């Protein structure tokens, strides 16, 4: 049975990275659209799939999984020999380096992006006022972290070595949100960070996804 992706067509957040792994790995899937504005993510039926009432989640022939980064890892492990290779290497040290980079994304990168997103998007859309001081502080902290990325990326092409891996790919989760808010965190960063960001954010599969939205493919090409 073809894998079911419960998500939105709109490329954003966790859906963005899961859809990108599906595209990079050329995995057929059916898109079951969950509409957030009408709270389809909070129905009893969806809460069985995702107890936090969120998207994305998958149903792979009865195996249900939520949390976008966990889904990406699962898909890479399940389909090692198709599509883009090396996203989640199996060698002990290679994988440890990917997990190191993935932890950095989760603890040193995305929390600051989410603070900015909360202030500039979520609060205004709930009638609350943006606290510009919080935005400025979050961006200042983020830039200090990206200065460290600059050092790392001066030594290797990507975060976990010289191959594109999930450690890099997970950073794309933030990209649509920042772009939609008109927040450019990249262009004044160091040359290595700029080179890396340009490289990962212009991958053909990512550009196609951004242009077309999440588009299911139920057969292998
Ligand atoms: N940590 C989760 C976050 C999922 C998440 O925040 N999903 C958002 C959409 S991008 C959502 O479902 N929001 C609705 C809600 O939380 O009620 C993941 O990476 O999958």
Individual helix count: 9
Total of domains = 2
Overall pLDDT confidence:
96
Alpha-beta content class: alpha+beta
Low-confidence stretches are: none
| Sheet with most strands: strand arrangement | 2-1-3-4
Which percent range describes the beta-strand content?
Answer: 5-15%
Bound ligands, each once: glutathione
Number of DSSP strands? 4
Summarize the structure.
The chain is α+β, with helices and mostly antiparallel strands. The protein folds into 2 domains: 3-86 and 207-212, 3-Layer(aba) Sandwich (Glutaredoxin); 92-205, Up-down Bundle (Glutathione S-transferase Yfyf (Class Pi), Chain A, domain 2), CATH 1.20.1050.10. It contains 9 helices and 4 strands; from the N terminus they run E-H-E-H-E-E-H-H-H-H-H-H-H.
Describe the structure.
It catalyses: RX + glutathione = an S-substituted glutathione + a halide anion + H(+). GO terms for molecular function: glutathione binding; glutathione transferase activity. Residues 91-217 form the GST C-terminal domain. Residues 1-83 form the GST N-terminal domain. It holds the Pfam family GST_N_2. The model has no long low-confidence stretch (mean pLDDT 96). The protein is built from 9 helices and 4 strands, in the order βαβαββααααααα. The protein has a 4-stranded mixed sheet with strand order 2-1-3-4, covered by helices on one side. With 221 residues, it is α+β, with helices and mostly antiparallel strands. It is 53% helix and 8% strand. The longest helix is centred in the middle third of the chain and has 34 residues, at 92-125. The protein folds into 2 domains: 3-86 and 207-212, Glutaredoxin (3-Layer(aba) Sandwich), CATH 3.40.30.10; 92-205, Glutathione S-transferase Yfyf (Class Pi), Chain A, domain 2 (Up-down Bundle). Glutathione binds at residues 12-14, 36, 41, 53-56, 67-68.
């Amino acid at each position: 049975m073809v894998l079911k992706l419960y998500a939105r067509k709109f490329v954003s957040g966790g859906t963005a990275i899961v859809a990108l792994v599906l595209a990079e790995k050329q995995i057929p899937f059916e898109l079951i659209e969950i509409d957030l504005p009408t709270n389809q993510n909070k129905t009893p039926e969806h809460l069985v799939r995702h107890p936090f009432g969120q998207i994305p989640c998958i149903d792979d022939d009865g195996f249900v999984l939520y949390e976008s980064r966990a889904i990406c890892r699962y898909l890479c492990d399940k389909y090692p020999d198709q599509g883009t290779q090396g996203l989640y290497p199996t060698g002990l040290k290679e994988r440890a380096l990917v997990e190191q980079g993935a932890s950095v994304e989760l603890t040193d990168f995305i929390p600051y992006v989410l603070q900015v997103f909360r202030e500039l998007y979520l609060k205004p859309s709930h009638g609350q006022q943006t606290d510009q001081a919080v935005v400025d502080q979050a961006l200042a902290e983020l830039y200090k972290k990206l200065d460290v990325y600059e050092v790392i990326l001066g030594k290797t092409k990507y975060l976990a070595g010289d191959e594109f891996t999930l450690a890099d790919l997970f950073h794309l989760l933030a990209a649509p949100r920042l772009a939609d808010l008109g927040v450019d965190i990249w262009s004044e960063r160091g040359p290595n960070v700029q080179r890396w960001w340009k490289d990962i954010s212009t991958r053909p599969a990512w550009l196609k996804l951004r242009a077309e939205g999440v588009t299911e493919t139920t057969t292998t090409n």
